[in-house]
Design a protein that fits this description.
The chain has seven helices and five strands; from the N terminus they run βαβαβαβααβαα. It is α/β, with parallel strands linked by helices.
Length: about 230
């Protein structure tokens, strides 16, 4: 793999990040996968991530340990209930409580540090600004700002050794388009987990924002949903 460009791919075990992993691989990158155990509500997504990267044959997979429960203030890291919608409608009047404060900034900063040590100029992240839950750190203007900062903040960029790129291949795609692209690339979505609040057995709840968007995506893509729901 000496002649392949290296890329860091943020890998959560979910539908979007797994599709991004497949896209980066299809584009010919040597993949270094980065996941986080940050005190999230469950470990099922990390189990999924480990299975997915093994199947896709990445060069290295790191799982960094953080404890964002020390900060809380999110339904994913604190003692706040995950909102559920029984009618399948998502209201985006305000940023939902499943938003984890500064999560993508924290994750991208650590990915940036690893990228610089690997001489990898590309970082892939599965953010999306269409079918998503309204998180501010998933918007194009945020990604553009982080990329500018990355090229100001790193020795490799300042000395002209690399031009860091934050790659967001899904940012302007609907969930249905993402699923269709993943199917073209042979992604096994049965391995992925999107649910914010799965059962003790690891079955998806079917009613959180993430489950609703996932179900809508499969329906609109005309693809059978392989997810195990409660």
């Amino acid at each position: 793999m000496a002649d392949m460009k290296k890329a860091i791919v943020l890998t959560s075990g979910g539908l979007d990040s797994t599709t991004v992993l497949a896209i980066a691989k299809q584009q010919g990158f040597e993949i270094y996968s980065l996941s986080f155990s940050y005190g999230q509500r469950h470990s099922f997504e990390l189990r999924a991530a480990k299975q997915i990267v093994e199947l896709m044959g990445v060069s290295k997979h790191l799982v960094l340990e953080l404890d964002l429960t020390q900060f809380g203030a999110s339904a994913l890291t604190g003692d706040i209930a995950v909102p559920k919608s029984l009618d399948g409608n998502i209201t985006a009047d305000e940023i939902p409580v499943t938003y984890v404060p500064a999560r993508n900034t924290i994750f991208l900063s650590l990915a940036l540090a690893w990228a610089e040590t690997l001489n990898a100029s590309d970082i892939f992240i599965g953010v999306n600004a269409l079918d998503y839950s309204g998180y501010p750190d998933c918007r194009p203007e945020y990604i553009e700002a982080f990329e500018r900062m990355a090229n100001l903040a790193t020795k490799a960029a300042v000395e002209g050794m690399m031009n860091l790129k934050i790659r967001t291949p899904l940012i302007n795609m609907t969930k249905a388009q993402i699923i269709s692209r993943g199917m073209e690339l042979g992604v096994d979505y049965a391995l992925t987990l999107s649910c914010y609040d799965p059962s003790p057995e690891g079955f998806s709840c079917g009613y959180c924002d993430s489950c609703i968007l996932r179900k809508k995506g499969f329906r609109e893509a005309g693809v059978e949903d392989p997810t195990k729901y409660v």
